[in-house]
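anyone seen this seq b4? input:
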Amino acid sequence: MKKFLTVLAVMTALFSAGLFAEKTPYSSADKATQKLLKKTNKLIQKEQYESAFASLSEIENEYTIAKSIEICTNYFAVSMMHTMFGFKNLEKGETLLDVRRGDGTYNYTVYNPAEVVKAYVEEHGEKPILDYALGLYYDDVLARYSGNWIMSDEEIAAKSLEHLSKAYDQKCYDGYSLSVLGLIYCTRNEYEKADSVYARKDDEGFDFTADDYYNYAIILTNLDQLEKALKYAEKSIKGYSDNPEYQIESYTLSADIALYLNDFKKAKSLIKKCQDKYPEHYRPLFSWIKYYVYQNDVENVLKKTAELYAIEPENPKLLQSILGQFFDLGTPNYLTPFFENALNEYKDNLSAKQNLLIHYAYLLKVLGNKEAAKEKVELAREELKKDDSLSPGIEEFLNSIITEE
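predicted toks r here
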């Protein structure tokens, strides 16, 4: 689940650009500022980012500062630690990605959003829209500079949460900032708060992205609101129609939730749809294993496990994933006949045999069968020596299996 959260956290920054008709954090600005922001937004729409940033110098207030931070965050051509920025008015057919990958020369503007906001707040007091802008700025910093910024990742994440939550409490947000805040709470395992944020987003009519549907389904699952979670998980399937990997994850999540509800008919339907659409992908086989484990159908569990292993019998990562699946399900004992059958089937494949013996030895130790584990360790050593595959790392691992704890 953590892995999926990390992958689906990447949401397009354009949702924070304030270019949409719905009410935004900028809606409460005075008429003169609204006129300027309209001009700036038109320049952004025309991809004239250097001109858009420069246009905001006509008025200085919390709204134009927030818009400046937004442009720095989303539309820079070059950035140095997100405290110095260069901008470009794009030519026809040119994209920001092209520019950022190129080697153009730009005039840098020193603009440290945190320092700019600090100076303004000292004179004018705190403003919700500045918390909104800084929260999204820090979230972008974390995405772009993780492990390589002037603050630790933990400090950056805390800053993002601090500012977005302050803005949220003062009803200063848009659909994108709500998604970011909800996801932050989710990754901190604060599911009740995450639920509150996503529920508000839904109640107030903000559009949900596929990421929102998926992440909200995870949040609701952790709160044991399974029927509601399944509804959102299934919506994410449709939302990811143009992204096969993400859609497969959505099918998997939806099938899992159906199993938690003991709705085997629904789970079977979801797994079958996924496999029919992606017949060459391995993930549906993991789902079938889980489906049959839930029904104590050992015969089909073994059948699907064998099918899955056959995809890459020499790949230790696949076998480790299979072990992990059964450990998570609390049924590692189901794997003993699988290993016995596989050792016979792949007896003439040296690499596959080595792979099986190493992991079978580990499984037997976990199951408490120490003598059988030692036997498999010795067999693994014999097979590994045949092609000089007994590396120091593997030797150390095998020794750990037979070492008494």
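The radius of gyration is 27 Å. The chain has a mean pLDDT of 93. kinda curious what u guys think
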